[in-house]
Amino acid sequence: MAALVPQTLAQTCATINPAWQPTFAPGYSGRVVMNGLQYPRSLIFDCNGNMLTTEGGGYGVRYIQLTDNGGTDVCVKSSKQLIKDSSINHGIALTPDCKTLFVSSLTTVWSWTYDGTNGTVSNKKTVVQNMKNGGYHLSRTLLVPKANPDMLIIQRGSDGNLDAAAAQVETARSQLRVFKIADIQAAAVDYTKGEVLAMGLRNTVGVGESPKGGIWTVDNGCDDMTRGGKDIHQENPCEELNYHGIINDTAAAEHGKDYGYPDCYAVWEPSIIPDNANLKVGTPFVIDNATAANTDATCQAKMAPKLCFPSHTAPLDIKFNAKGDIGYIPFHGSWDKAKPDGFRLSKVAFDPATGMPVEPSTSTTAAVNVMWNADNSQCPNKCFRPVTLAWGPKGQLFMTCDETNEIWVIGVRRLLEWKGHGYRGLLRYWIVCV
């Protein structure tokens, strides 16, 4: 019981006022750990509990040491530039032993030998190259799965809103590809040499791994959609939650499959879609100017999303809790809607036994808000815009916000029943999001 008491004491870290005050769901709270960053994007922790984030604005990678008093009482002990490279823009990953660091740009993935104790890197190598797009979808998300720590997953988006050539696997655009770390450390390879985990994913910036080892992604649908000459883009297509199996299970139904882009998308609002042959939320359908002789039926023969979210809300990450019953998703927010939407952190319920979402694919209520802006009409310039998430060393959920140049820590307050010494008590205290 005494071990719990410190968590009820007053916060010891200084308060940093947020650029814009969010609203939290009951039981949730959060605070700014750090501000004044340069467009922070991806976020990871090393084996010593130090935080690493990629930054835009010509910065590169920042190394941050924390004072962690538990719960949301976290503050910065020290911060420094770890890697200076103006081309670094998003992706970052560590091997499980925290000795090899991977970072990406639009064109290239590099590795360094990493020393988390001293906050230094050395022995820079180019490991994957030739990923350049013409100016669209610059992020290259990286993930070293815990279930397959000898592999590196690299995401690459499309070259344009509707990239017709991405329908061909040889272009290596709008895909997830997998690389053996030992091989790319020995000699750099082109992105086209990786094994195809999935194709037909327009811009899948969010790549995450469930406790069961399954790879999940959140995909951003196309802009300015029309069907039968009618503009339906305000409410279609949906943003997708997709499943790709465990990467070494090549016999899995999802392995290497086509998820539909650039011809096929999933429905969010069926009522406004012309020639609606019983389309429902989450059903794949074909749009105008398809690159092949596709129909709704051919689209539905491809891989469908497990869940849908409102159009243009721009989910950019997914992180699961340890139990596997919640996946947290930050929605970066829209630019292609008359009424701004997104700009929030949400959670999705999963069945830890099956590893699948609790809600059916037709659900419109699967994403439950945890943290949001009170007035989205002020977005994107006067609100927080979440980007990526990371679990801290004591289990807290950390989140980057690029528009406000902040890093947040999110906590949840719960009642726990304590048993012992012949009596039962209820203790209210801060614990992490589990």
Automatic annotation (TrEMBL):
Gene3D superfamilies: TolB, C-terminal domain. InterPro entries: 6-blade_b-propeller_TolB-like, Beta-prop_PDH, Quinoprot_gluc/sorb_DH_b-prop. SUPFAM superfamilies: Soluble quinoprotein glucose dehydrogenase. Residues 22-411 form the Pyrroloquinoline quinone-dependent pyranose dehydrogenase beta-propeller domain. It holds the Pfam family TrAA12. This is Soluble quino protein glucose/sorbosone dehydrogenase. It comes from Clohesyomyces aquaticus.
